[in-house]
Design brief:
- The complex is a heterodimer of chains A (about 280) and B (about 60).
- Chain A contains eight helices and six strands.
- Chain A has about 280 residues and is of the alpha+beta class.
- Chain A is elongated.
- Chain B has one domain.
- In chain B, helix 1 runs antiparallel to helix 2.
- Chain B starts with 6 loop residues before the first helix and ends with a helix.
- Classes of the chains: A alpha+beta (about 280), B mainly alpha (about 60).
- Chains A and B meet through helix 3, helix 7 and helix 8 of A and helix 1 and helix 2 of B.
Chain lengths: ~280, ~60
């Protein structure tokens, strides 16, 4: 039974609020000091971990069969911080949806900034250069009425401005994935008398919208790449998010049941008595 | 930044949240959290000294 001096109000509602946002349950109960302590400490720990891991620390396992493996335990520790955990689960459902596949065709035209490399065939061989610019892609009817993708690349290759026509094989990775960069490979084509001819290739990435990569499960390759990039800081980042999640479980408990050892003035009295007897 | 410095915010957060879920009184929370924070740092310092000593001349 909680101390009557502690205003638990509706403990269930407070618990749910504490789960969703650290400190929100205590704010609802009017326990402002604790709300501030929990809100600041857990949020700072959690987002420090997220930032250290390139905002890719929190995600569910990447496939249904992996929920029985260690990855699920990692997510369980983070799940104490509710809203990001719910978001991660929603992203998992979107990620495993069969519709989330590399596109063969486009529903509508799209344009995005591009960063990568260009490989152009010349008389001296293949010349490779850095490329930045704008990629525009659109759905088109190809030969025999098939739906294909064509487009343009306008930007800078090395030091010169270019305008390439894209066609042939244009491939992109799936729209929803655990990386901010969406890989794009496209043939550069040129109209000749005998028809379009492939003269080079564009390889690089266009940005994914935030909603299509934040909290999305990482593939094995993406996870290994993140480990390679961050090294031991990845482990520290994970520890921060795990500790934040586990601490919020204690906070939810406190919002529902009140503090584990009581109000605290009993401790002061006991210590005062000990000092007096000493 | 050396990875060891990340211990400080972690220890501060753990001390404050752990103690705040044990007690309600603000003064008690602050006093006990400070004590727990010091204990964590001393414990980690002892571990560090032990590891440095064991790895001496390796």
């Amino acid at each position: 039974m909680a101390d009557p001096r502690i205003p638990l109000k509706n403990p269930l509602l407070a618990g749910v609020l504490a789960f969703l946002i650290p400190g929100a349950g205590h704010l609802y109960q009017g326990r402002l000091f604790k709300a501030a302590v929990f809100g600041i400490c857990i949020t700072v720990l959690f987002f420090t971990g997220m930032a250290m891991a390139d905002w890719r620390a929190v995600h569910t396992p990447s496939a249904p069969q992996n929920w029985r493996k260690l990855g699920a335990l990692k997510f369980a520790a983070q799940a104490g911080v509710g809203l990001p955990a719910i978001a991660a689960y929603c992203q998992y459902r979107r990620y495993i949806d069969p519709g989330n596949a590399p596109p063969d065709e486009l529903d509508a035209p799209m344009s995005a900034s591009f960063q990568g490399r260009v490989f152009v065939r010349t008389d001296e061989g293949i010349v490779e250069s850095d490329a930045t610019g704008l990629v525009t892609l659109e759905p088109t009817k190809g030969a025999f009425g098939a739906n294909i993708i064509t487009g343009r690349f306008q930007g800078r290759v090395g030091d010169s401005a270019v305008d390439y026509e894209l066609g042939g094989a244009i491939g992109m990775t799936q729209p929803i994935s655990g990386s901010a960069d969406r890989e794009l490979i496209a043939d550069i084509v040129q109209e000749t008398e005998s028809g379009p001819e492939v003269v080079g290739e564009l390889q690089g990435a266009i940005p994914r919208p935030l909603v299509n990569w934040l909290f999305v499960p990482l593939s094995n390759l993406q996870e290994q790449e993140l480990h390679r990039q961050l090294g031991k800081y990845h482990e520290v980042a994970m520890v921060f998010t795990w500790v934040a999640g586990l601490l919020n479980v204690l906070v939810i408990w406190d919002a529902v049941e009140g503090p584990a050892y009581g109000y605290g003035d009993e401790v002061v009295e006991t210590e005062a008595e000990q000092e007096k007897s000493a | 930044m050396n990875i060891t410095w990340y211990l400080l915010p972690l220890a501060i957060g753990v001390s404050l949240v752990w103690t705040a879920t044990r007690y309600e009184d603000t003064q008690v929370i602050v006093r006990k959290a400070t004590k727990l924070f010091t204990q964590i740092l001393v414990f980690m310092a002892v571990i560090l000294i032990v590891l440095v000593t064991l790895s001496h001349n390796l």
